[in-house]
Amino acid sequence: MDRKGLEVAKFLLDWHYLLTEPPLDGSITEIYFCFVCSVYSKGKDKVSWLQFMKYLRIIAKLCDENTLVCVPKNALYQHYEDPFRCFDRITYINRLSLALLLRASSNLNYTFPSPPSSSGNSKSRSISPMNTDPNCSTSTNDDTSHFKVLDEIEFEYKRKPLSDLSNVEIPSTKSERLSYLLKLIDGEKPNVSDNDVYPIKIVTNKKLVPKDINDTYTLTTRSNRLEQLDYLLNTPCSSHDLQRERAKLRTPRHTFYDCCEDNDHASLLATMTSFDKNTSYCKLNEDKLKRLLYENGPSSNLNKEKLHQRYVQLQKCVETKLHFIPIIQAQTDFKLGDCSYLDTCHKMSSCRYIHYGQLMPLKKKEAENDEMYKIYENIRISDFTRGESVCAYLKPELPAQWINCDLMKIDFDVFGNDYGIVIADPSWTIHMNLNYSSLKDDELLSLRMDKLQKEGLFLLWVTGRTIETGREFLSSWGYKVTNQITWIKTSQLIRTISTGRTGHWLNHSKEHLLVGMKGDNIKWLNKGIDSQILISSTRETSRKPDEIYGIVERMCSPGVRKLEIFGRQHNTRSGWLTVGNQLDGVHLVETSLRERTVARNQAKVLGRRFQSNLEKPAYTPNPEKGAEFKKHLEAIEHHAQGSSSNWKKVSALIAGPAILLTAVNTWFVEKEHAEHRAHNKHLSDDEWPVPKYPYLNVRRVDFFWGDGDKTLFWNPDCNRHIR
């Protein structure tokens, strides 16, 4: 093949991924014009349309039929003197065949039979691999005539046998042949070190640096670099594989129970079980089952033997499989079918639909002690310790901790700022009647979530309405939303939910968990372990699946601190701190956290309702709260002024007896108070007031209604503490 033919082949090889895609769509005419406009067509003797078609035909015959797949199949053998009349297309270009053709072009000989002369004699002419144009040996300069003659003749190509090459060894095995084939395609392997991970030869020619963005030639010739970059971007890091394998060794496997599909078993067990409405589980009366087995023992009677085998199969099934027992009540109507809410129905005691209770297997396949010991050994002995502390296994995991507090009033500095993982499940306002209080969007935004972390992940549960609001909140708190976990809800019968409790237009059967990240390079973060889709059954109202804790714990190392906000008692978990207003008291183990909490409680106790004689306020005034208090006070005064003249509307016949009764009762009450105070010794003038206590529940001015806590009417003893 001559120089121009090699240029055509090189052009097809370099631009194969663009020639067959839009906007060219493999149009032979468009491919020709792209070739003419490119720098592949060098020199003054540019390739004509007929020569271009001729070279395409030569390439197709030199390689194989599938090198250039055209529509129609004989497109390369059609005669189009005008390129604008050609509407044929190339749909596929075999890159391997073109690479082999270019690599081995120096080892090819082409023999073209001469066109038959008028005397009937024919001569053959040989073209060397790097010879000039084959048509140059003919007697005419008309490209069209040469093209027609070339179409009428047949030409063959012959590869020199490898045995003729003194410096090439003949491959004998499949692996050697494969190596030789790859050598023809890629050339000699570069000398690289053992640490080099690049499978493609690195191009270091400075001349290949593109001059500008329109320098398509240098960009194309740098295809090796582009392939190398594509390989690096598409190859997953080995650390991700190691992190996944480490998570498999350290995660305990929970048993998956098969569900019994025999309806007879469910009907039989319905008479032997009791249903617990609080847990939606059934408890089997094993004594009743054993009594049935004893009464229906083995027998020679065929019917009794079948009945005995039936109970034996039932006993084996109860031990290994999960059963859904129908709950039959007095108002149950079988014609209505299953309840759409199932175990989450709020009116199960009066619902007429069918409900079910779960009967767990009697022999639960829980993790044995040796399996837990094996998991501990996998944590203790680990060759891959990226992202972990030096002696993480020596530090025991902290037990569950929780604080019952009002998050709208507590200072977030009490919790600290060294948490790696934070989960928040706020009670968003969804305009529905709920059995718990909800927060407005501006109230949630006012919380200082930005104080909890220096770097780490913040996971925020959002509803369908608040997805974009949650993204804005995370951004305002200093986080970048990097991912989103979707919880697909399933019913008690492990089916997708068809009737959700939320959604104004469509029933919501999924919830979203936004994942925000603070920090650029978090070394302890494990990536690519779990999927972002979570499928789990629903339970109580607003309760999230426990599987989310496993996903979060696998994303971080064991020593990372974890915090859950707006949690409830069922959310408490080992290694986590849970805070919220639906917890049972306070339970803390960490010394620093306990000291901060105790200091907060002491400050709260010392802050009395009334202050004594401070010259200035003990706190910085808040203009917003002051304006709100002033507005509330004005409303009270306005109400008092409006109701001050109500006594004028009451007649004297009613007001007189009422005042008399009130005065008599007040006299008796004050008399009892005076007798009670007479038995107590008063503080002397030297003992009171005590100067070292700045906060005393003392009035400097005598009010008619007294202190409000000690007496009903004014008396001089209410302003002096009694021992």
Automatic annotation (TrEMBL):
<dbReference type="InterPro" id="IPR036418">
    <property type="entry name" value="Cyt_c_oxidase_su6a_sf"/>
</dbReference>
<keyword id="KW-0489">Methyltransferase</keyword>
<dbReference type="Pfam" id="PF05063">
    <property type="entry name" value="MT-A70"/>
</dbReference>
<feature type="compositionally biased region" description="Low complexity">
    <location>
        <begin position="117"/>
        <end position="129"/>
    </location>
</feature>
<protein>
    <recommendedName>
        <fullName>mRNA m(6)A methyltransferase</fullName>
        <ecNumber>2.1.1.348</ecNumber>
    </recommendedName>
</protein>
<dbReference type="GO" id="GO:0036396">
    <property type="term" value="C:RNA N6-methyladenosine methyltransferase complex"/>
</dbReference>
<feature type="compositionally biased region" description="Polar residues">
    <location>
        <begin position="130"/>
        <end position="142"/>
    </location>
</feature>
<dbReference type="GO" id="GO:0005743">
    <property type="term" value="C:mitochondrial inner membrane"/>
</dbReference>
<keyword id="KW-0999">Mitochondrion inner membrane</keyword>
<dbReference type="InterPro" id="IPR029063">
    <property type="entry name" value="SAM-dependent_MTases_sf"/>
</dbReference>
<dbReference type="GO" id="GO:0032259">
    <property type="term" value="P:methylation"/>
</dbReference>
<feature type="region of interest" description="Disordered">
    <location>
        <begin position="113"/>
        <end position="143"/>
    </location>
</feature>
<keyword id="KW-0472">Membrane</keyword>
<keyword id="KW-0949">S-adenosyl-L-methionine</keyword>
<comment type="similarity">
    <text>Belongs to the MT-A70-like family.</text>
</comment>
<dbReference type="InterPro" id="IPR001349">
    <property type="entry name" value="Cyt_c_oxidase_su6a"/>
</dbReference>
<keyword id="KW-0496">Mitochondrion</keyword>
<dbReference type="GO" id="GO:0005634">
    <property type="term" value="C:nucleus"/>
</dbReference>
<keyword id="KW-0809">Transit peptide</keyword>
<dbReference type="InterPro" id="IPR007757">
    <property type="entry name" value="MT-A70-like"/>
</dbReference>
<dbReference type="Pfam" id="PF02046">
    <property type="entry name" value="COX6A"/>
</dbReference>
<dbReference type="GO" id="GO:0001734">
    <property type="term" value="F:mRNA m(6)A methyltransferase activity"/>
</dbReference>
<keyword id="KW-0808">Transferase</keyword>
